[in-house]
Design brief:
- By secondary structure, the chain is α/β, with parallel strands linked by helices.
- It folds into three domains: 205 residues, 3-Layer(aba) Sandwich (Rossmann fold); 35 residues; 121 residues, Zinc Finger, Delta Prime, domain 3, CATH 1.20.272.
- Helices cover 51% and strands 7% of the residues.
- It has a five-stranded parallel sheet, sandwiched between helices.
- Helix 12 packs across helix 14.
- The longest helix is centred in the last third of the chain and has 21 residues.
- 36% of the residues are buried.
């Protein structure tokens, strides 16, 4: 992974490169920022630059043995920790049990969401976590001598998903790290990372990607519709994952839209039996996808309400969503928009609190019957 593979974020690149050139590499960094801003790509590019034995003033050259191994994410001094799940086949897994899938996913594109990762490893209804036993693996790896590079690098993706006990154990090794050890923690929810870990890391804040960098990245995507790139940039708000989904929709977005349509049509027609079947289907998709659906539904409510004002600059919808909204948008108005939004927010919290999904989805669907008629 090279710095040129990271979309935008030029100021952060310069800052990290300067830290290497001035030999001021911090032992622990916290890359914090929204999803889709390139934190994982930057972490790998930075680690590769540090390990490169033939680097230029601005980039790894990619010709040394270290770079060849980094290009396969197979360097012996590069380690990863990321959320995984317990399965019937392996009730006590660690990240290394999924390292083949991780390498495949990251090498395809380091821009992906937590939900994308869980789908890729077929987590189903399981919630991805970093378990307590992962800390023992971290201790063992980092207390070994470096194999080749000057630094051993441990990249922890989404530490907010870390078990509390694991976080406390990890804190000890961050406080007193072995010599020439580099931690890079990558978070999308900085406040959810325990404060004692945050206080012992150097924060690197990732802003949203600038429009011009986003435009160049989208233009390079195979299969992207050039006519949609402008709308994608406006819709994504600096999140490359969202922008890419706009020009090349993924299956999750299509699924959420289809299920939103079903929910509203059934509510309008008062089809209670269909709503029960719909709730059963939604209860089976896994909690992270369930929360993602309600977040998607909240967004559509906002966008369809704004669509009634006939100002296209205020509406962030793709073509399929816009076309359906031409008839549906009038049903979202000042009498029900806040209540609809609150229903989806409440359902999201209930899912996060491990409520019974079938009851939550059926209750939400039935409440739509009353609200959609207003």
């Amino acid at each position: 992974m090279f710095f040129r593979d990271v979309i935008g974020q030029e100021n952060i690149k310069k800052r990290l490169i300067q830290s290497v050139q001035e030999e001021r590499v911090s032992h622990a960094l916290l890359f914090a920022g929204p999803s889709g801003t390139g934190k994982l790509a930057m972490a790998i590019a930075y680690a590769q630059y540090i390990s490169c034995s033939n680097r230029s003033a601005t980039e790894s050259l990619g010709v040394c043995p270290s770079c060849h191994k980094y290009n396969k994410l197979a360097h012996p001094d590069l380690h990863f920790v990321f959320p995984i799940y317990n399965s019937a086949k392996n009730s006590k897994p660690v990240s290394d049990d999924f390292i083949t899938e991780w390498r495949e996913k990251v090498l395809a594109s380091p821009y992906f969401s937590f939900s994308d990762w869980l789908d890729f490893i077929d987590a189903g209804n399981a919630q991805g976590m970093i378990y307590e036993r992962e800390s023992d693996v971290v201790y063992r790896k980092l207390n070994l001598k470096s194999f080749e590079a000057e630094y051993k690098t441990m990249i922890i993706w989404l530490p907010e998903k870390m078990n509390q006990v694991c976080s406390n154990k990890l804190l000890k090794i961050i406080e007193e790290p072995p010599s020439k050890t580099l931690f890079i923690l990558i978070t999308e929810d900085e406040e959810a990372v325990i404060g004692t870990i945050r206080s012992r890391t150097q924060p690197v804040k990732f802003p949203f990607i600038d429009d011009e960098s986003m435009r160049l990245a989208l233009q390079s995507l195979e299969g992207a519709d050039p006519a949609q790139i402008g709308d994608a940039i406006r819709l994504a708000g600096g999140n490359f994952i969202k922008a890419r989904e706009y020009v090349i929709p993924n299956e999750d977005e299509k699924f959420y839209f289809h299920k939103f349509q079903e929910m509203m049509r059934q509510a309008y027609k008062r089809e209670v039996l269909a709503q029960m079947k719909w709730a059963d289907e939604m209860a089976a998709i896994g909690r992270d996808k369930q929360k993602a659906f309600f977040a998607y539904a909240s967004r559509l409510v906002r966008e369809y309400f704004m669509m009634n004002f006939n100002n296209s600059e205020m509406v962030y919808l793709n073509e399929e969503e816009k076309n359906w909204g031409k008839q549906f948008a009038p049903f979202i108005n000042e009498q029900n928009v806040i209540q609809l939004y609150n229903e989806f927010e409440t359902a999201t919290k209930q899912i996060a609190w491990n409520g019974q999904p079938r009851i939550i989805f059926l209750d939400t669907a039935l409440r739509m019957v009353r609200l959609i008629k207003k």
